[in-house]
User: What shape does this take?
Amino acid sequence: MGEIYLDNSSTTMVCREAADKVMEMMTDNYGNPSSLHTKGFYAEQELSAARQEIADLLGVLQEEIYFTSGGTESNNLAVFGAAHAMRRRGNHIVTTMIEHPSVLNTMKQLEKEGFAVTYLKPDGSGKIRPEQVFRAVTPHTVLVSMMCVNNEVGTFLPLEAVPAAIAAAKAPALFHVDAVQAFGKIPLKPGRLKIDLMSVSAHKIHGPKGVGALYLRKGVHIVPRAYGGGQEKNIRPGTESAPLIAGFGAAVRALPEPGAQLEAMARLSSYCRRRLLEIDGVTLNSPEDALPYIVNLSAGGVRAETMLHYLSAKEIYVSSGSACSKGKASHVLTAMGLPRDRIASSLRLSFSRYNTREDVDELADALREGLSSLTKKP
Assistant: This one.
C-alpha cells in the first residue's frame, strides 16, 4: 500500500483540475490582469471566472470577493481592517480562545493599540455556548470574530448567536468569520448568517497554496493593510497572482456536491471512530457532532511527536495539531482543560474526498502497533 495522507486540515493535495489550470496560466495565459492588451484581458477573464465560482458557492455577489495570499492574510485584513475602521464607535472586540493564531496574534496586537478583547472559553468538548456570546457583546463592541469550525477538534461554533447578540446589545459591531476549515465542506451562506466578513483559503480544498479570499459584504468599510496600484479595489493592492487564483477557481469547480460529500465523510468518520475506540489507550477529543473531516485523539500517553514519526515511517501522515503551531502544546486542547498527558499525546486526523476505509484500517493497525511498541512497560 502506498502513502496514506490524513493531514488534510493542514493542506490538501492539489487536484488535477487546479494543477492543470495553474500550469496553463503560467505558460500560456501569463499576462498581467491589469494590462490593457489582449494578454492582460485574458488573464483578467480568468480572475473574474474564479471570483464568480467562489461567489456562487457562497451565494454572494462577485464584487464582494477579494483575493488575498491565503487564510492568514484574509484574517489579518479582516480583523485589523474592521477594528481600525470602527474604532471611533468603540474599542471592544469579542473572539474565542480557540481561534487560529492568525486571529489570536492579531488580537494581541490590537490590545497593544488600546482595544479590549474578550476571549470566550470553550467547554471540555471544545464548544462555545450561545449564552456566552450574549454575555460578552456590549454596546461598545465593534467586532466579533469567530471561526466557523475549529481546526484542531472540528467543533462548530455558534455563529447564529452572534447577529442576535449584536442586535440585543445594540452594538455597532461587524461580524467576521474564519471559515477556512468549513469552506467547500459544508453549505455556508454569509447572507443567511448575517456575516460581514469571511475568510477562505484554496489549499484546504485541493487548490494551490498561497491564495485565499476575503468576502466583504457590500457597503462594509474596512481599512486596508497595504497601499498600491488599486488592484482588488484598493482593499488588497498588488499584482494578483493570476495562476494561483485561476487554480483556486478550478478547485472550487471540481468540488463534489456538498451534501453527498458530507454524508460520505460522516460515514468515514464514524467508521474511523469505531476503529479507534477498539484500541486500548485511545481517547477521542473531538465530540461526535464535530465536522466529520476532523477527528482528534489522544494516544495512550505516547508523545504526539513520537507517534507522528512512528506513523510517518510507515508513510502514514497525521498531524499533532495545527501546522501553524508547530512544536507548541495545543492552545485549543489547553483551553478545553484537558490533562497535560492527553494534550501531549494528541493527534489530529483530517480527511479529504480521496480517503477510504482502507486508509482508516491501515492507520488503526499502525496506531495499535505503535502504542504496543512505544509504551514503556513496567
Notes: The chain has twelve helices and twelve strands. The two ends are 35 Å apart (CA to CA).
